[in-house]
């Protein structure tokens, strides 16, 4: 069974074609700058040269048509006929409280996603555009929606409810939803598999660390808490997001800087985090380089980020009544040995010990803790596309 995985952003469309008989990636690519000048598709098939297709794309439908043409192209295609694509799996950011697992897309699902637009105004609209474009260009092909929020729907109410007037939750759905759920689900399951253990008997903290970052407490295979909240702004100090702050700071800054809602949102979402502290960049590689050269603010930004992650790991161990495994994933988690070491430093009292030699690893499954570490520390590269494809196959069997 061949599954096309689609992930639509506001001006982009990421895709992978996966043969689920052996989980091999047949093609991978990115359509970018959709609707603006310089639109192009970067297309790659294993063992072939990368192809860049520069062509105007007014919308996601145009982009998808170029992608589908590339997949069957005589020179750089991955398949001979589009009929070989058995199903499409769509990444969808927000399903509110409507869905706790992936679903086959029908009119009711689309209506539900439209109702969730106000919860994810930047993400759900392009997700919906991608779904409708696929339906138009690939009639008769079954499609599945896989939600970033679904994995976190197992959180108990004590985790997801905010200490605000309860009627605000009832009226507007103001609660913790969490994000990166597909990644947290994949890496927790992969960690259990890698260790040869039953996930239903494990306590795992998953650390999805990148420009956007979150942690999840996964007990017996289910998420019981996560660091992102009503929006992806809550939790860690991220690339440009502030994460947890005193809420009174918001109105204080608005008054002092004479800002409206858009102005304060811009500061908290796009000018804060490690960028705001360091003044260097939102890219951790740039910040690490600056810190090594003696930039004190860059070092402070890294210290703040690592401290927040460390604090959440310890908190989630308390919430779960212990922890068996800590898993690092995503761009920073998979590739930065120094960040992993700094985060775990000081957690020896919990039974966490990093092995410097084992920790010298990038982008592959590995145990990076010492042999006598009571808590296993792992690196597990995330694979959200494969998780989406697996859900698609499972639902359409």
From TrEMBL:
PROSITE patterns: ACETATE_KINASE_1, ACETATE_KINASE_2. One of its GO terms (molecular function) is magnesium ion binding. It comes from Maledivibacter halophilus. The record marks 180, 241 as: Transition state stabilizer. Mg(2+) binds at residues 7, 384. This is Acetate kinase. Substrate binds at residue 91. ATP binds at residues 14, 208-212, 283-285, 331-335. The keyword Nucleotide-binding applies. Catalyzes the formation of acetyl phosphate from acetate and ATP. Can also catalyze the reverse reaction. Its EC number is 2.7.2.1. It is found in: Cytoplasm. Mg(2+). Can also accept Mn(2+).
């Amino acid at each position: 069974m061949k599954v096309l995985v689609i992930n639509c952003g506001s001006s982009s469309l990421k895709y992978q074609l996966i043969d689920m008989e052996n989980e091999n990636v047949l093609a991978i690519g990115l359509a970018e700058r959709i609707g603006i000048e310089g639109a192009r598709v970067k297309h790659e098939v294993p063992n072939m040269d990368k192809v860049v297709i520069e062509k105007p794309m007014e919308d996601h439908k145009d982009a998808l048509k170029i992608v589908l043409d590339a997949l069957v192209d005589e020179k750089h295609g991955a398949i001979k006929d589009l009929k070989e694509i058995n199903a499409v799996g769509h990444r969808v950011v927000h399903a509110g409280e409507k869905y706790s697992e992936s679903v086959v897309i029908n009119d009711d699902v689309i209506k539900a996603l439209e109702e969730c637009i106000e919860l994810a105004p930047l993400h759900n609209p392009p997700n919906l555009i991608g779904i409708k474009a696929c339906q138009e260009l690939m009639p008769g092909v079954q499609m599945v929606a896989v939600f970033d929020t679904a994995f976190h729907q197992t959180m108990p109410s004590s985790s997801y409810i905010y200490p605000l007037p309860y009627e605000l939750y009832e009226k507007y759905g103001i609660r913790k939803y969490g994000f990166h759920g597909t990644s947290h689900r994949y890496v927790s399951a992969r960690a259990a598999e890698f260790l040869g253990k039953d996930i239903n008997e494990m306590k795992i903290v998953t650390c999805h660390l990148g420009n956007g970052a979150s942690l999840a407490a996964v007990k017996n295979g289910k998420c019981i808490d996560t660091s992102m909240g009503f929006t992806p702004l809550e939790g860690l100090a991220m690339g440009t997001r502030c994460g947890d702050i005193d809420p009174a700071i918001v109105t204080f800054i608005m008054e002092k800087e004479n800002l409206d809602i858009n102005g304060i949102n811009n500061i908290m979402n796009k000018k804060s985090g490690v960028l705001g502290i360091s003044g260097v960049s939102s890219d951790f590689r740039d910040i690490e380089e600056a810190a090594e050269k003696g930039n004190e603010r860059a070092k402070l930004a890294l210290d703040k980020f690592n401290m927040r992650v460390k604090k959440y790991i310890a908190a989630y161990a308390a919430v779960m009544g212990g922890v068996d495994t800590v898993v690092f994933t995503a761009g920073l988690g998979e590739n930065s040995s120094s960040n992993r070491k700094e985060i775990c430093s000081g957690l020896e009292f919990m039974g966490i010990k990093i092995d410097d030699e084992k920790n010298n690893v990038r982008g592959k499954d590995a145990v990076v803790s010492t042999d006598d570490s009571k808590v296993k520390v792992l690196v597990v590269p995330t694979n959200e596309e494969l998780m989406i494809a697996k859900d698609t196959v499972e639902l359409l069997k």
